[in-house]
Amino acid sequence: MNQTIPQRVSALRQWMQTQGLEAFIIPSTDPHLSEYVAPHWQSREWISGFTGSAGTVAVTLNEAGLWTDSRYFLQAARQLEGSGISLYKEMLPETPDIPDFLCSRLSPHAAVGIDGQMFSAAQVEKFAEAFRQKGSLRILSVADPMDALWEDRPPMPSDPAFVYETAYAGKGCPEKLAAIRKATQEAGAEALLVSALDEIAWALNLRGTDVHCNPVVISYLYIDQEEAHYFIQPEKLTETVAAYLKENGVTVHPYDEVQSFLSDLKTTNLLADASKTNYAIWSAIAPSCRKVEGASPIALLKAIRNEREIAGLHNAMRKDGIALTRFLMWLEKQVPAGTVTETDVDRKLHELRAAQPLYKGESFDTIAGYGAHGAIVHYEATPETDIPLQPRGFLLLDSGAQYLDGTTDITRTIALGPLTDEEKTDYTLILKGHIDLAMAVFPEGTRGAQLDVLARMPIWQHRMNFLHGTGHGVGHFLNVHEGPQSIRMNENPVTLQAGMVTSNEPGVYKADSHGVRTENLVLAVPAGEGMFGRYLKFETLTLCPICTQGIIREMLTREETDWLNQYHRKVYETLAPDLNEEERLWLKKATKAI
What angle do helix axes 307-334 and 558-575 make, rounded to 10 degrees? Predict the structure, then answer.
């Protein structure tokens, strides 16, 4: 019989008492500290019932709380009802962090348990320091309790890996390993330990289906100046992949032997990222091996697209634009009948994208939020929440696809009929912010936080804001969210460089009313020489009409209007050759100059 959430929490508390623990912390990650995880590691979802991608549960013997960010405030409040788990909204001044919460509730010197595979070494040290300062609590790494508590726990993923052809990757595995070795030496180390799944996939030109929407393979990678050692479940290796790895000088080991391998290391200096390596793995590294703490060089190497990747991405955007144009035509015809629901939107969009060459699936679960559902930042329609679209108000549609030649991510807020003055104002302000960032020209060495204000200023002037980032990196037939670059209010020392792909997605969300977000992907490209050095600008990659029905034209500057008209001209000229006559006529109207 399937346990209720209160029963699961109760069972965890009973287990905690057998271990001498007064609290236990459960994050949303896996041993590779991934943002999206395979079902086997969705322990936080199992214990709480909250299905968002980000959140941490802390359970004491008397209380339980879920901490999550602004994308999920509304969703979490609804899903936690009746669970006995309280919602703690991150980044709000009145919200205590987890150490404050635990220190105010536990007895001095109490033990707080974690599964050391689920937390980075840096996070454990941060917790330990906070516990020492605030309450003399002790943090203990223990074996994963979910194996005993979670009935019918899904197994670890076992689907085979596959080789990602150089025709799409642009660079072969030997060239990438050489670049990694050189960068590792420059960081003052002989070898590199890699836990992040997207970095491993990029370095070896391997892909898989282990994580929903993210084509990665559960594995670890160790690279020194002579050898590379790859830790993966044996059943995931086909003859083709095994031969490919051998040909490229990569030695294969069973996945569960990584800790014993690291404990026997003879390497003098090992480069490892404490924020991307789990505590159990970090602790297993031989004491004689000096850890050179720093970011993996793969993150930056991966983030700068080569010419083949950029060409592939342009092709992927064109295909995506064709599918989206056909979808928007379909939607316009269907909404007046009142028979289309949010889940129908998801299904139709999947159908049209799947018809495009080299399509490999969605890059994340489609967010199709009509009306008030648009204010739930990462809303996902379910049979329980699904509602029909009416010929009025907004549909917020955030979706993306994985093609062999590129990954897409796009948001459009679509007017389905008459709008209120407030909806039009919010829509226009977000469009202004989107365009102002898209038009940015900036010197080399600029960080994302220095540009973030361009997207926010229009809504700040109306005392509004959004708490998610304005821009995230996007992988190449890889994770839809990737670093190291970002555009957000929080400081990030990584500068924007030519070849980096980033999203541009300001938004505003009003509970029980509506949400607005406009998102394109942009590529940083050279903008020429100028005073004190070289400059960069953004080339918008995404090709899809931006709804003009909600625009208050008087609120746009001449430069903003010109940008929108030029963008729409490019959308039409690029997509029209691949459309039939009816589709071309529709697109011509949708991209008409304002």
Answer: 90
Burial class (CB in 10 A: 0-12, 13-18, 19+), 319: buried
Q: Cβ of 452: how many Cβ atoms within 10 Å?
A: 22
What's the pTM?
0.94
User: Tokens in use for 175?
Assistant: 């060239």
DSSP string, 455-509: HHHHHHTTT---SS-SEEE--SSS-SSEEEEEESSS---PBP-TTBEEEE--EEE
Distance CA 553, CA 508 (A): 19
SS3 state at 533 = strand
Sign, CA dihedral 293-294-295-297, equals negative
CA distance 265 to 494: 31
DSSP β-ladder status, 482-487 and 471-473? antiparallel
Going along the chain from its start, the domains and CATH numbers come out as: 5-149 (3.40.350.10), 162-302 (3.40.350.10), 304-590 (3.90.230.10)
The closest alpha carbon to 294, from 524, 494, 567, belongs to 494
- Tens of pLDDT, residue by residue over 127-168, are 999 998 887 899 999 999 999 999 999 999 999 999 999 999
